[in-house]
Amino acid sequence: MSAPSSEPRAVRPLRITLLTTAGAAVAYGVLGVALTVMSGETNPWPGVSLLLVAQAVALAGAVGAGLAWRRALQSLETPEHLPGIAAGVRGLLSLLLRIHGALLILGVTVWMIARPDAWLAILACAAVAAQLLAVLRFLRGPAASASYT
């Protein structure tokens, strides 16, 4: 995937962050719907709720990256603002990383206490939702490592 010709190299990491987090939000939504339809359980919430948390965190990352990308494109005439914009996205991703980790641990703990019979669905969905932690950790680097010259 190549960057559009009107997009400078300096804002490419922000676009990548936007597309990756938006794609993750869509993927978690599709997984949640598929789990609900195919589970056959009357109450699929233990697994689905963990995927919804991941989807909400990915969506928050996409919104933040999208706003930063738009701001970066608007401030290309003053490139001294670009490092601050990228640092803001990096800070947002770090915050979302901690929030998602904490919510995932809390969700697994609560569901294991409330529905111990659904332990397999809880752990399987937690493992899938935990992949967002790796994605956010990976994206923290590119969002702030752009060349601003």
Tell me what you see in this structure:
This protein has 149 residues and is mainly alpha-helical. The protein has one domain (10-144). Helices cover 79% and strands 0% of the residues. The protein contains four helices and no strands. It has helices spanning 12-39, 45-74, 82-114, 119-144. Helix 1 (12-39) runs antiparallel to helix 2 and helix 3 runs antiparallel to helix 4. It starts with 11 loop residues before the first helix and ends in a 5-residue tail after the last helix. The mean pLDDT is 87.
What's the short version?
This protein has 149 residues and is an all-alpha fold.
Notable characteristics:
149 residues; mainly alpha; 79% helix; 0% strand; membrane; transmembrane helix; transmembrane
Ranges with pLDDT <50 over ≥5 residues? none
Helices and strands, in order, run as HHHH
Number of strands: 0
Based on Cα principal axes, name the global outline: elongated
The span between the termini is 22 Å
Mean pLDDT: 87
Topology, element by element:
Layout: H1 12-39, H2 45-74, H3 82-114, H4 119-144
Helix pairs in contact: 1-2, 1-4, 2-3, 2-4, 3-4
